[in-house]
Every structure is written in C-alpha cells, then in structure tokens.
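seq as requested:
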Amino acid sequence: MNTPDDQRLGVQIDVRVRQADLGRNGSASTIGMARWLEDARIRLRLHRFERLVGEGGFGPFQILLVGQRVDRLAPAGPTGTHVHVHTGVGRIGRSSFTFTQAITADGRQVGDGDATVVLAGDSGPLQLPDELIADLDEMRLPETGTPTAARPRPERLQRAHYSHWTTLRSRIGDVDSNQHVNFIALTTWYDEAVAAFTSHSTGTGGAGPVPDLPPSSYQVQYLGEVTYPGDYEIGLTVRSADTDSVHYELGIFHDGTCLSVADAIGPRGEPTAEALEATLAAIDSDSRGARVAGAVGSTALGSHFGASLEDHGPNVVL
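struct tokens:
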C-alpha cells in the first residue's frame, strides 16, 4: 500500500532487507539497492491508469526502462532491517516519465536513484494517456534544477573505446516477462566486469582473495535488446582515478553492436604499480577534465523526455 509522505520525499514504501541484498561486507550492495528501487516502483498504484487499462481503453503496450541511476550513499542492513523507499515523479513528457527515488534508514538517507520509463507499442512509443498523467502528477516532486544526463558520446558505442573485456553468457533466469534480460541482471554484468578488472589491477588474478571493490554508483542507458540465448562482451575503460575512487566507462556488446552503456564509480583499492601505470596511460590527458566533469553521480537521468524509442532502442521491462 502507498503511504503518502511529505512532498519532498514522495510516496513511501517499506522494504525488508534480504540476504541476497547484502554485499560481501555485510551491508546492502548497490545491486541490492537497485532491487529496492525496482520493488518500490512495481508496488506503486496508478489507479486511474489501471482502471483505463482494465476497461480496455489503452493498449496493448509494454512498460520499458530506457535508463536508470542508482547511488549507494551509506551502509544499510543487516538482514531483516526495514528501509523506506520514497518515490516521486521528476519529469513527465509526451511518451516518457522519470521516477526520482530516495532510500532512508533510521532517519538518514542511504541511497537514491532515478528511472526513466516509456510506454511502447509495436510501432514505437505511445503518448501517455491523460489518466496516467493525472496519476503521475499526484506524485510530482518540486523541480530541483538538476542537469540531465547527456546521450552517450559516439565513441562510447565503439569497441575501440574500451581497453578491458569480460565475456558472459545470458542465463534463462535473467529473462523477464518481456523476453529481455532484466536490467538488474545487466547491472550485475557490469559488476562482473569491474570485479575482473580490479582483480587484475590489484595483482590477485585468481591467486588470492578477490578484492571487494564494487561500484557504489551506476548510471546506465539501454540502447538495444539483450536476449537469451547469447554471448556478450562487457568492455571497460578507466575514465579517471583519484586518491579514493576510480571512474569507469562500460559497455555491453553483441556482434560488435553496443546494447547498453554505463558510468560507474568504485573504490580505488591498491593497484599494482604496473597496472596503475597502464591505467593512467590509457586516460587521455587532454580530455580528462571534461570526462571528470561528466562523472556519474553528479547528474540525474531525464534526457529522454519527449524522445522516441528510435533514439534509445527498446530493452528492459520495468
């Protein structure tokens, strides 16, 4: 059931922390928090829109996620803890809208995120019906003036942009009701790529404990279908590194086509001198400042309003 909260935080839904939500350090992982955000969105009630669909006044359609952001801001857990996910609507366009969300526990914010959604039919995006817009308006949050995320730079769609590769095969358990690999599963693929890179860069390479350096922040845009069965490659390059953190750029490829891109921020760890030298050499010093300025975590999703599915490509069910 939806519980109205104050206007700043939006609709509150309580989520119980599960063992699968925890990372290796015993607190919620970024993937676990992404699941909480998804759970809260699914449990929202859009009464006017649901009535319209039930009466046959709209459809057939699919609800597609074209982009998301999730930031893990502080530890949360252990198993059995209840956290509060607050969900509002940041922007509403002709065929898309963005949920803006925050996660709180014990009176403090521990995470946040966004999710941009489109309604699509067989021929492309559908105009949002008045009933859905009325439901969304009731959850609209005050405009924050946060800049929107830019579309991926052209080089992000090219294999040559990435210097490290991880190969994965889609699993039937990753497929959702829309016959696509679910976006949560895709985020775990990005985690796999970062883990492979950090294992190599810290010199363990499978010979010792795997370093626990998962990203705390993801911003993802979905560009095409990821399906089962299939073999996929996840490319990774380091955009910048500082004393405490590493900024990654990642992409999922199939037969040379880029199907999703992500920006991520993770802890630096203790890379070997050789790996650090190679990493820094791969960063273009002339563009380093511009790339850092676009780091994920400082931008909110929302560039998709009023755009068509031809601009984004269909992918994952919300």
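The CA atoms of residues 68 and 177 lie 19 Å apart.
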